[in-house]
Each structure stands twice: as structure tokens, then as C-alpha cells.
Amino acid sequence: EADWLFSVATRVATVDGKAVHYPTPTKELVQALEARSETAALRQLAEARRDLGDLQGALSALEAWATAEGAEAWAEAGRWASAQGQMAFAQRAAEKALPGLSPEQARALQDERIAWAERAPGHADPLALREARARAFPADPRAVEDWIRGLEKAGRLDEATAASRATECLPRERRVLLASDLAADHGLARKA
After folding, report:
1. Which residues of 57-90 are buried (b: 16+ CB within 10 A; e: fewer)?
2. In this structure, are strands 10-15 and 18-23 parallel, antiparallel, or unpaired?
3. pTM, 2 dp
4. Alpha-carbon gap, residue 181 to 177, rounded angstroms
5. Is residue 192 within 8 Å of 183, Cβ to Cβ?
6. Which residues are bridge partners to 11 per DSSP?
7. Vertex 4, ends 30 and 22: CA angle to 5°?
8. pLDDT range class, residue 2, cuts 50, 70, 90
């Protein structure tokens, strides 16, 4: 990949008898990348189009690249779109990535999706994503407790209490403390 990319992204001029390498002007780079058949060219094309201010064209190239490359590319596309403030695309890309990722990669992407949703809740519900993560990783006490705390913050105390009692990944003592903590936070001292 590096050889063809270097030849496309770099121009050479002779100055005082010496070869000087410089970046291909972006408009020319876009044209050169559009003419390439390698799927990696699509990833580079996304960057070049963004640099020209064509964010929709960049997202189209990124989507074509991720479709060709698979789950890890979809995860990268989601992260890239999030960095560009394109949260709807970011969430869709992450959703496509999750089934093909390793458990560790999927867990990290689930965490990122929640952070994205908290920054831009109009594109995804942070609480629903917390629940999805807890269901995807039911043996992860941090994920489960984060979902339960999210339910509590959303004013859904009965659901939070039921979830804290039903979870098996938290030790019994932790479940009792969590239920007591939830009750105390809502002025239900008798139940605490």
C-alpha cells in the first residue's frame, strides 16, 4: 500500500539539481485517488475530500471503504465521523462494526458510543446504549452497574432496583449495597 500511496500523494520537483518531494495538491489528489482500484484509496479519499470541505463526499468514500473492509473499518469510520461531528453516521457505523469485533474491541466501541451519545443525544439514547452494553457483557459488573445508575438518574428507580436485584455479576453484598444506595438517593430511608 505504501508504494502506490506515496506515488499518488507525493510530487517531485527538481530544485538546484536536487529532487524535492512535496504533497500532491488536494484537488489533484482526489482525482488520483478516485482513479485507483485499491480499497485503501477510498480511506485516503475520505481525508482528501474532507480537506476540500466536501464532508458528505468524505463520508461516502468512508462508507464504501468500510463496506469493503469489514468490522474494524466500520469502527474506524465511526470514530472518524465522531471526530468530524457526524454523530448519526458515527452511531450507524459503530452498529455495523459491533457484530464482527472481538469482545475487547466491541466493549471499547460500546463505551465510545455511550460517550458520543452523551455529547449528542439526538442521535442515540445513552441509557439504551448502556443497557445494550450491559446485555452484551452481562458478566461485566462495571457495565451493569453503570446501566443501573443510568436508570436511577433517569428517574426509573423501580427498574434500577429490579435490575440490581436480578444481576448475577455483582456479588450479593454489592447488590444489597447498591439497592440501599438507590433507595437512600431517593429519600426512601426505610428501604435503605
Report:
1. bbbebbbebbeebebebbbbbbbbbbebebbebb
2. antiparallel
3. 0.85
4. 6
5. yes
6. 22
7. 65
8. low
Q: What is the 3-state secondary structure (H, E, C) of the chain?
A: CHHHHHHHHEEEEEECCEEEEEECCHHHHHHHHHCCCCHHHHHHHHHHHHHCCCHHHHHHHHHHHHHHHCHHHHHHHHHHHHHCCCHHHHHHHHHHHHHHCCHHHHHHHHHHHHHHHHHCCCCCCHHHHHHHHHHHCCCCHHHHHHHHHHHHHCCCHHHHHHHHHHCCCCCHHHHHHHHHHHHHHCCCCCCC
C-alpha cell at 35: 482513479
Q: Evaluate if residue 185 carries a pLDDT over 80.
A: no
Cell 443501573 belongs to 148
Query: Is the C-alpha dihedral spanning 120, 121, 122, 126 positive or negative?
Result: positive
Residues 167/176, Cβ–Cβ less than 8 Å: no
Q: What is the pLDDT of residues 28-83, one digit of tens each?
A: 999 999 999 999 999 999 999 999 999 999 999 999 999 999 999 999 999 999 99
Contacts of 67 (CB under 8 A, 6+ apart): none
What lies within 8 Å, CB to CB, of 102 at 6+ separation is: none
Q: Angle of helix 55-69 relative to helix 87-97, nearest 10 degrees?
A: 0
